[in-house]
Amino acid sequence: MTLHTPPLSAEEVARLARLGYATDRERAGTCILVDQGVRHISVQDNQVEILPIAEALRRHDWVQGLMFSLIAPDHDEHVRQASESTDPPLGHFVRVMEGAKLRLPVQLFDMIETPQQRQFFHNITVVEKGAEVEFVTGSSVSPNVRAGHHISISESFLREGATCRSVSVEQWGPEMQVHSYARSRIDKGAHSVATSIMMSPLRHHYSHSLTEIAEDGSSGDQAIVFAPEGTTRIMESGIRLAGRGATSETTTRMVAAGGHITNRNLLVGAAPGTRGFLGCDGLKLGAAGEIVSVPGLRAESAESQLSHEASIGMISAEKMAYLMATGLTEDAARDLILQGFLRLEESNVPEAMRAEVNAMIAAAKSGSM
Predict the structure, then answer these.
(1) Is the pTM of this model over 0.85?
(2) DSSP conformation letters of 225-279
């Protein structure tokens, strides 16, 4: 299926490029959602299927069984409103066929271009048995959009032996409200590696994610989170190691530059031979703002090995003094410390995106975002 009406403008292309966008021929598949609808779909690899979610529900009756299967329709007021709406559902459906080894990434983006827009999407992703895929995803708003409300539900299914790598980057307006809900099921022997970059200012962001991992499955997640003055982020997540030998590793690095961050994680070892780690580190750049980090571990099996590390602090005066003694200015020393703190495992970020991600970190540190 190919849908492209109207064509993306030069400004839209440039804006999406900062999130990892590339031309259709450089991607196995592309889907772009704008305001209240699907703006563009293109598929370059016949091992990928991308449809508007309403069309997928009509075409594949089994998709109906996936929708709201990982999240309760009455989870909260936002999810309840979506589940009870009589309007056709909006969002995308992505399916990577069994055994596919995609050479090129699949890219998925959503944008708000109308000020004060209330945008809601429900997205479903299925990576079938033994398939391998890389996703580049992101959210953006037009330069004239300062305020609006984005609500998204994402249900993802990694079937047995599948491998999925993903990078997600967001750029919102300074008065935006965002509510995002992510649910993932990782089946036997499947593997997920995800990188999230949440650097742009916004008024309020609430995110809630749950992941269940079956026997010998694994997940590895890294995130960098920035909260300048006027930004509040509340992040709640849970990982359940449900099958024997399931593993997970989650690392979150948070910087508060006058804003507020609350990060609550719960890691559950529910089966023998499971191993998991939570790393939650926070850095305050001044007296204003706050970081609250609450890592939690629960072992339901005596043979589960779970651990966490959590720290919150300010930039060390000793480190600053040492670096300045080598000839660096105060600003340069501070930037060097921040760059090290917000380090990413670059092997998990597509090479084409690394320079842009580093530029975004630099812009966030300087307050120019």
Answers:
(1) yes
(2) EEEETT-EEEEEEEEEE-STT-EEEEEEEEEEEBSEEEEEEEEEE-STT-EEEEE
